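Lecture notes, part 5. Sequence design as translation. It can be helpful to think of inverse folding as translation between two languages: the language of shapes and the language of residues. The source text, in structure tokens, appears below.
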């Protein structure tokens, strides 16, 4: 390569975002943080919104800071899945996007299944049926605010919305589209059948583009506003999970991955969708990935339980950082109380510790009395739910898996990583923490022709980051606990 490549990765999570810079010298990628900010939902008359205008301001602030010292060659944006913004005929945002945790979708799945059966829906989309999915959000919008949907000219999923205001290009990136329950998993195009049966307007959906598509240069008005030179805007894997998966430093063909953040995305990588009877029974999802791959996975409520518990303790006047909470939980013996992280009780924001106590009391378990016991319960419950999903994936693929690769913010918890190894009974390779950012940058490098394929991309991550190995311990003890978890908690 003639010169180092300098790229920007804008990574928006459900609780915060950042703009990161990546420098590639032909052998390694060096990353650095440019700008970090919180992502706080805003309530308006009972509706929970994302503050998109503030997030766009923070993105532009990051771009400006990054370009003070050196010009960027490109930028890519990734976000959480399913949520969207609507544009009117003039291309203006009609209102701030609604948060997937808003209660407007309560009961909508049942109404959708009156129009199309669950099996029909799964056989077309291959998606795990969850009320937060875009299809059900649109149905709720049509029912409760039909005039808004009627005026909409375009629907753009969250990363596509940011890309639109950076480049002017209106399109739907494939990995994000595959989270909507509106994409045909086999043709990789919008499903006219699902859209028609759910009675949704078909004209609002934009053309699908694959991750690694160049969308054009930064708009001239953005360049003038920020006093920065133009550079390429690339549609990376818009769903942050798929960016993270592209950066998993696996050298095996068959492996298990966990992208662990607010949500835990637990699965494996396949060459094509797996949508038979057993995957439908287990409600596993087929999500589009980079390089033509399919991520066969389950969405599990993840560190949300801990994040929201920490917010509750803060409201009660008890301030702890995540490191302090983990240290307290390490000293707790544990193995007392467990919950199903995906129980509907834990979906809304609020007093998660109180709901955990309620859950344990109703299920006849010892009730966590201290913060340490609550944190231990959350971590052990996540590891046990991972084990359940591992068994389901093995049953669907007929494969055995000898290792788990964990990536994302959850890998900063030594407790969680060790528990996952213990409960699942196989080694865990933890890292990188910044897998999403690495994947974002690597897809930009692929678009620029600097790297070729997933294998080379993953080798670059292995050369750039330290990966920590956790070996399983107490196998017999955790096998017995898992048996009780299945019969007493998940039954």
């Amino acid at each position: 390569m003639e010169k180092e490549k300098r790229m920007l990765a804008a990574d928006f999570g459900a609780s915060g975002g950042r703009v990161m810079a990546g420098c590639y010298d032909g052998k390694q990628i060096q990353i650095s943080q440019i700008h970090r900010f919180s992502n706080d939902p805003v309530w308006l008359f009972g509706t929970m919104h994302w503050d998109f205008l503030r997030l766009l301001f923070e993105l532009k602030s990051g771009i400006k800071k990054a370009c003070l010292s050196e010009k960027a060659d490109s930028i890519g944006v990734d976000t959480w899945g399913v949520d969207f913004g609507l544009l009117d005929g003039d291309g203006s945002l009609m209102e701030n996007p609604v948060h997937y945790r808003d209660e407007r979708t309560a009961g909508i799945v049942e109404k959708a299944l009156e129009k199309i059966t669950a099996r029909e829906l799964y056989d077309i989309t291959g998606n795990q049926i969850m009320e937060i999915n875009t299809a059900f959000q649109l149905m709720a919008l049509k029912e409760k605010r039909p005039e808004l949907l009627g005026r909409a000219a375009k629907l753009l999923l969250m990363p596509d919305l940011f890309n639109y205001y950076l480049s002017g290009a209106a399109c739907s990136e494939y990995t994000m589209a595959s989270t909507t329950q509106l994409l045909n998993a086999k043709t990789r195009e919008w499903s006219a059948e699902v859209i028609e049966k759910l009675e949704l307007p078909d004209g609002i959906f934009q053309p699908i583009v694959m991750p690694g598509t160049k969308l054009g240069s930064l708009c001239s008005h953005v360049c003038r506003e920020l006093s920065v030179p133009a550079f390429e805007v690339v549609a990376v894997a818009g769903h942050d999970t798929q960016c993270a998966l592209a950066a998993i430093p696996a050298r095996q063909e068959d492996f298990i991955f966990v992208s662990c953040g607010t949500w835990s995305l637990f699965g494996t990588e396949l060459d094509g969708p797996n949508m038979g009877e057993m995957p439908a029974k287990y409600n596993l999802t087929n999500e589009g990935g980079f390089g033509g791959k399919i991520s066969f996975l389950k969405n599990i409520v993840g560190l949300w339980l801990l994040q929201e518990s920490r917010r509750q303790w803060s409201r009660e006047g008890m301030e702890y950082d995540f490191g302090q909470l983990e240290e307290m939980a390490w000293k707790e013996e544990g193995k007392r109380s467990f919950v199903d992280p995906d129980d509907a009780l834990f979906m809304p924001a609020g007093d998660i510790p109180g709901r955990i106590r309620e859950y344990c009391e109703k299920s006849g378990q010892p009730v966590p009395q201290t913060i340490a016991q609550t944190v231990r319960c959350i971590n052990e419950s996540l590891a046990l739910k991972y084990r359940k999903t591992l068994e389901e994936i093995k049953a669907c693929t007929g494969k055995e898996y000898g290792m788990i690769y964990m990536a994302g913010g959850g890998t900063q918890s030594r407790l969680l990583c060790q528990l996952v190894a213990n409960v699942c009974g196989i080694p865990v390779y933890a890292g990188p923490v910044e897998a999403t950012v690495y994947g974002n940058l690597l897809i930009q490098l692929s678009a620029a022709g600097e790297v070729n394929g997933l294998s080379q991309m993953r080798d670059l991550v292995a050369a750039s980051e330290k990966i920590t190995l956790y070996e399983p311990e107490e196998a017999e003890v955790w096998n017995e606990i898992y048996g009780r978890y299945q019969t007493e908690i998940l039954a």
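The translated text above is only one of many valid answers, since several sequences can fold into similar shapes. The chain has a mean pLDDT of 96.
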